[in-house]
Amino acid sequence: MPDWVRRALTRKRCKRGPRRFAIVEEPNEKLVYTVKFALGMTGFLSGVEVTHIIVLHTWNSEVFASITGLIGTVTGVLIGQRA
Fold first, then answer.
1. Quick check: 8 and 77 in contact, CB under 8 A?
2. CA gap 74, 67 in Å, rounded
3. From CA 44, how far away is CA 37, in angstroms rounded?
4. Which ranges in the chain belong to alpha helices (H)?
5. pLDDT (tens digit, 9 = 90+) per residue, 16-29?
6. Model confidence pLDDT, tens digit, residues 36-65
7. Calpha distance 11→15 (Å, rounded)
8. Are strands 11-15 and 21-25 parallel, antiparallel or unpaired?
9. Residue of higher predicted confidence among 52 and 80
10. What is the dihedral of CA 36, 39, 44, 49, to 10 degrees?
C-alpha cells in the first residue's frame, strides 16, 4: 500500500529562472506519524460513537467533540503544509 499520508504532506515547488526545476520537500517523520495517529483515532472514536448509539440509543456529545477536534487538527495540518 503506498504511503498516501506522506504523499499528501509532500510539498512540490517549481524554481523559476533560466532553468526550471522542481523542488520536492519531504515532510518530517514526526508529522507523518502524528497525522496517521490522528486519523486512526478519528476512525476509532467514530466506531465508539456508532457503538454507543447502537447499544444505548443515545448520542454521546463528548466523543463527538473529540472527533470534531481531531478532524479539525488533521485538516489544519494538511492545509497548513500545502501553503
1. no
2. 11
3. 10
4. 4-9, 29-56, 61-82
5. 777 777 888 898 99
6. 999 999 999 999 999 999 999 999 999 999
7. 13
8. antiparallel
9. 52
10. 170
